[in-house]
Amino acid sequence: MEPVLIPHVHEPHAFTLETYLAHGGYRGMRAALAQAPADVIETVKLSGLRGRGGAGFSTGMKWSFVPKDVSKPKYLCVNADESEPGTFKDHVLMERNPHLLFEGCVITCHAIGAKVAYIYIRGEFYHVQRVLEAQIAEAYRAGYLGRNILGTGVDCDVYVHRGAGAYEAGEESALLESLEGKRAQPRLRPPFPAVVGLYGCPTIINNVETICNVPLIFERGVDWYKSLGPDKNTGPKLYCISGHVEKPGVYETTMDVTLRQLIYDYAGGIPGGKALKAIIPGGSSTPVLTPDSLDAQASFDGLMKAGSMLGSAAMIVMDETTDMVWVAENLTHFYTHESCGKCTPCREGSDWMLKILRKILRGEGAMRDLDLLLSVADNIGGKTLCPFGDAEIAPVVSTIQHFRHEFEHYIREGRSLVPTPDWQARQLVASH
Ligand SMILES: Cc1cc2nc3c(=O)[nH]c(=O)nc-3n(C[C@H](O)[C@H](O)[C@H](O)COP(=O)(O)O)c2cc1C
Ligand code: SF4
């Protein structure tokens, strides 16, 4: 398919307003601002756009939850935290096509009755922040942001806020806390942010890619949008592919693509002709799949059917040399480090799982440790304040489900089933 989210990404000045306008930019915004807010929301609902940040919730539906009769200001927060292992699509969008995001911000603000949008960007994305701020200034100068945009009477200010660099800051209510200058710890819900969000005011939080889809719907029409991809999984989609593939990178296609096509056609297959062993299809919070699922559709519904999730569409590919016990330890280490510590099952459980996994890696495991791991995971999943708890058990539960024999081999033999040269170095890591 012709790329529409990152269409001229390889042009040297792809990110400039001049390039954007030369490719027909800001047409979607003109069309949307000519419509009443309620009609804009209805159009987005009809397009079938689902949020690209992980949960795949209907974007138009989410916008319609913003109360119309309150006098308080309303806000849009663009979630550009992008800290999940394997995920790197949003920073490409912002770095190479920032005006698409600004266009989407103005349309979204118009739809929900907001005049201010904050782009909450991951702390480490310093370069992207500079690109965004320079291009925001350009957009103001040209009248695409600010007061009375294009003479329509619509006002919209866009600010970039750099986070402190925490995975949990991407969770929507933790993001709001962080924007307000507090620690990035989630809030109890309800009330949901659409009703009580930033500074206690109605707030919509959407992923960068979600907002970038919005102008395309108005520029090309709902029928065009719905023609891309399968029913209920419409629109263009970015996939980040990393790990054991010839050509890691960000690829744009539609959600009728299969995992096999993404790995072998788009990313060039596995180097050295090695066999595929495992796939994490949607970022580290989604359960591992095996090559049996290669023909699954890489859509929200297709991956759910296959026993995993589309998540952030960040596919991590692992070949036959991968030690799955090490994978479980590696990701659990990440989650233990990133837990915000607010609720007990997550704070204590992640550390407990890590200790057991390290015991197994050191060659000191017992068979009952596998059931203990699953039992600890069971006491975390669905029992935490935010979905981080479900995310952190995914690597543990799914690797035991699909690769239990590797864990058992470690326990029996004291070493990995996979003859990796550095397994002794891993044992050393596990002793800490
Ligand atoms: C621990 C955690 C981290 C998250 N990180 C991100 C992130 O970096 N970017 C993002 O868009 N959504 C992230 N999410 C999902 C957001 O909470 C929220 O659902 C999303 O931003 C909504 O946008 P959407 O409706 O456009 O998908 C995260 C969720 C959790 C639980
Ligand atoms: S699940 Fe983890 S990250 Fe989420 S609130 Fe509880 S301690 Fe914090």
Question: Can you walk through the features of this model?
Answer:
- The protein is globular.
- The protein has helices at residues 17-22, 27-33, 37-47, 59-64, 90-96, 98-112, 126-141, 172-179, 208-220, 222-227, 259-266, 300-305, 324-338, 344-361, 368-378, 388-413, 423-430, and strands at 75-80, 116-121, 157-162, 203-207, 236-243, 249-254, 276-280, 314-319.
- Helix 7 links the parallel strand 2 and strand 3.
- The mean pLDDT is 96.
- It contains 17 helices and eight strands.
- The longest helix has 26 residues, at 388-413.
- Strands 3-2-1-4 form a four-stranded parallel beta sheet, sandwiched between helices.
- The protein is of the alpha/beta class and 432 residues long.
- Residues 168, 186, 339-343, 346-347, 384-386, 388-389 line the site of iron/sulfur cluster.
Major sheet characteristics:
4 strands, parallel
Number of strands: 8
Average pLDDT score: 96
Q: Figure out the total of helices.
A: 17
Unreliably modeled segments = none
Overall 3D form = globular
Structural class: alpha/beta
Percent helix: 40-55%
Bound molecules: flavin mononucleotide, iron/sulfur cluster
Strand order of the largest sheet: 3-2-1-4
User: What portion of the residues fall into strands of 2 or more residues?
Assistant: 5-15%
Give the C-alpha Rg: 22 Å
Compressed to H and E, one letter per element, the order equals HHHHEHHEHEHEHHEEHEHEHHHHH
Q: Alpha-carbon distance between the termini?
A: 49 Å
